[in-house]
Structure formats: C-alpha cells, structure tokens
C-alpha cells in the first residue's frame, strides 16, 4: 500500500519505520531535517514537502504535536491550501496525533465534503510501544472506515479499540492521559517521600509495584533516575513524552470537563503541576521529570 506519513518525531518516526519494515511503500515528511534524516537512515523515502509527500498515496497518516498543527496541515491557513484540498476522493486519512475532539470533528467534516475517509486514532504506549509496534489505538469514526484502516494500524499497534464516532478516540485518549498525568505525579511524590526517609528508590519502587500502589509508571516508566534502565529518567529525561505535550493533554481534559460540567479536581491539580514544571524550564524534558518537583538530585 502507498502510505504518506507526516510528522516523524519521537512517535511518528518509529511508526513510519514499522510500516516500511512491514513492506508498505512509505513516503514521509517532517519540518525538522533531523527527524527526516533519522527515518531515512532506516530506509524510508522522504518527500520534498507535505504536498509532494501525499501525491498518489492511498493512505495519509499524521502524527503532529497539537490541534493547530493538524488543522493547519489538512485545512490550510490564510491563503495556503490544506492537504484535503489536494487529495483525491477515496483517500483514507488517519490522524494519530492527540488533539481536541472538536478539531478532529472539524477536519472530519471537511474530509467528508471531499469524499475522503477520516478517523481519529490517537495512541498510547509511549515511544517504547511505537518502536516495538505494540501501541494501543483509540479510534473515532465509522466502523467501516476503521476496518479499512485496520491492516495499517495492525503494523504499528497491538490493540485497536473503536471508541465511537469521530472525536471519540480523542476523548478516550485525554481521559487516559489525565489519569496518566495524575499517576506519574503521585508516583513521583511517593518515591520522593521514601527517598527523603532514606529508602532505596529501587527497593521502594519494587515494593509499591507489587502492592496496591502498583501502576503503569512503576511497571514501565519509573520516574526516578537509575531505577529502570530503559526509562527516560535514566537517560536524562531525553526523548519520551514531553512535559509540554502532557501539559497540552491535561489542558484538553480541563477544556472538555468545563464543556460538560464534569468535576476533575485531580486533573486540574495535575495540569497546574506540569504547568509550573514547564515554567521552570523543563517543558522539553520527558514528563516523568515531574519527579524534580518533589525530589532534589544531590
Ligand atoms: P514530537 O514533538 O517528538 O514530534 C512531532 C513532530 O511533528 C516534530 O518532529 C515536528 O517537527 C513535526 N511537525 C510539526 N508540524 C509539522 C508539519 N506541519 N509538517 C510536518 N511535520 C511537522 O512529538 P511526539 O512525541 O512524536 O508526539 C506526537 C503526538 O503524539 C502528540 O500529539 C503527542 O501528544 C502524542 N503522543 C505522544 C506520545 C509519546 O510518548 N511521545 C505518546 C502518545 C501520544
């Protein structure tokens, strides 16, 4: 299948590589040359710009930071036309970015007017899941369009859930990430408390992992440096899932909560914690660096 892949960052890069390894004809593009070079090293061909990249593609996949990037790419800005205006009817567009459900619906409506199939398919599983091809996809859109997308999604993920109509994938994703933000902050707070009392972070983490405090952060993504070799915490909090991206997701959760009058006090507190952490100059570090709010490295 001919696939165009736009956005080759921490997640999009390994996802595009997995599609290439599975035998698809992938043409990819990112505004960052460094991101393009990394993927090109793995054998993926790079397009000149987004427009040139999607020419002749049956499937277009985007993996961009936030709503404004996805809207600008597909709908255009000012005089500049978006990709939807250039794609032929019948193209399948899969947006894997985490964005506002309202933005996903806006792009889906414009796609429908051009007889282009669209699903929102945000992911969970982190960069480890993207590299291993074991991501979880949370899909919003028509069931028939999901079936069309399934063979492609299966090359990048292990779990594919149909959350509901367009935008529902994004709603599921922000519920999940609100919980993740809370759990990572809480896990950091608990480890820091133990360490301040002289406990070994490795021993304490293992105790909690096997006890009632066990959670994904303790299983796969320990925030304390040196506890888990593969976690961003042990690599200077480089790569992974940026603090500013987590802040964006917690903001989306609060906007959504306001719209439906939901009470999300812990989500609101988590958003403020990550905002303060970002203001402290750590927006580009992996989100597990929130530990630094509670623990001072010696
Ligand atoms: P990233 O910042 O590493 O990568 C985003 C890439 O998009 C960058 O390389 C940037 O240059 C590129 N880009 C921006 N605008 C572009 C445009 N118009 N055309 C082409 N390229 C463009 O981000 P990431 O960590 O890969 O995350 C991507 C999305 O996935 C975000 O919405 C994030 O919330 C979500 N997500 C991330 C993780 C994770 O662990 N990193 C996990 C799940 C979901």
UniProtKB/TrEMBL annotation:
Pathway: Amino-acid degradation; L-valine degradation
Keywords, in A-Z order: Branched-chain amino acid catabolism, NAD, Oxidoreductase
Superkingdom of origin organism: Bacteria
Reaction(s) catalysed (UniProt annotation): 3-hydroxy-2-methylpropanoate + NAD(+) = 2-methyl-3-oxopropanoate + NADH + H(+)
Record-linked Pfam families: NAD_binding_11, NAD_binding_2
The keyword Lyase belongs to this UniProt entry's keyword annotation: no
EC number annotated for this UniProt entry: 1.1.1.31
InterPro entries reported for this sequence: 3-OH-isobutyrate_DH-rel_CS, 6-PGluconate_DH-like_C_sf, 6PGD_dom2, 6PGDH_NADP-bd, HIBADH, HIBADH-like_NADP-bd, HIBADH-related, NAD(P)-bd_dom_sf
Domain 3-hydroxyisobutyrate dehydrogenase-like NAD-binding: 167-293
Xref: Gene3D superfamilies: N-(1-d-carboxylethyl)-l-norvaline Dehydrogenase, domain 2, NAD(P)-binding Rossmann-like Domain
Segments forming domain 6-phosphogluconate dehydrogenase NADP-binding: 2-164
Classification via NCBIfam families: HIBADH (TIGR01692)
Family note: Belongs to the HIBADH-related family.
Full protein name: 3-hydroxyisobutyrate dehydrogenase
Source species of the chain: Acidovorax lacteus
This protein's encoding gene: mmsB
């Amino acid at each position: 299948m001919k696939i165009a892949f736009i956005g080759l960052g921490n997640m999009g890069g390994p996802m595009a590589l997995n599609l290439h390894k599975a035998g698809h004809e992938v043409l990819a593009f990112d505004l960052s040359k460094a991101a393009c070079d990394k993927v090109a090293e793995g054998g993926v061909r790079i397009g000149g710009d987004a427009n040139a990249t999607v020419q002749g593609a049956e499937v277009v996949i985007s993996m961009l930071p936030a709503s404004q990037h996805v809207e600008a790419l597909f709908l255009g800005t000012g005089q500049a036309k978006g990709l939807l205006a250039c794609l032929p009817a019948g193209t399948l567009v899969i947006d894997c970015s985490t964005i506002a459900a309202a933005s996903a619906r806006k792009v889906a409506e414009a796609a429908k007017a051009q007889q282009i199939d669209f699903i929102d398919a945000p992911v969970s599983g982190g960069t480890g899941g993207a590299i291993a091809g074991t991501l979880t996809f949370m899909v919003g859109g028509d069931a028939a369009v999901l079936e069309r997308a399934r063979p492609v999604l299966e090359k990048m993920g292990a779990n594919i859930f149909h959350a509901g109509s367009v935008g529902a994938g994004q709603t599921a994703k922000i519920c999940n990430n609100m919980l993740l933000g809370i759990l990572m902050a809480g896990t950091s707070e608990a480890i820091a408390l133990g360490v301040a009392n002289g406990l070994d972070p490795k021993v304490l983490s293992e105790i909690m992992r096997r006890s009632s405090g066990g959670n994904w952060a303790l299983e796969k993504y320990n925030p304390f440096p040196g506890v888990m070799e593969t976690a961003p915490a042990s690599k200077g909090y480089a790569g992974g899932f940026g603090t500013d991206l987590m802040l964006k997701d917690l903001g989306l959760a609060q906007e959504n909560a306001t719209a439906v009058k939901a009470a999300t006090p812990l989500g609101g507190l988590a958003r403020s914690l990550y905002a303060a952490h970002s203001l402290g100059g750590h927006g580009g570090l992996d989100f597990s660096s929130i530990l630094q709010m509670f623990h001072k490295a010696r």
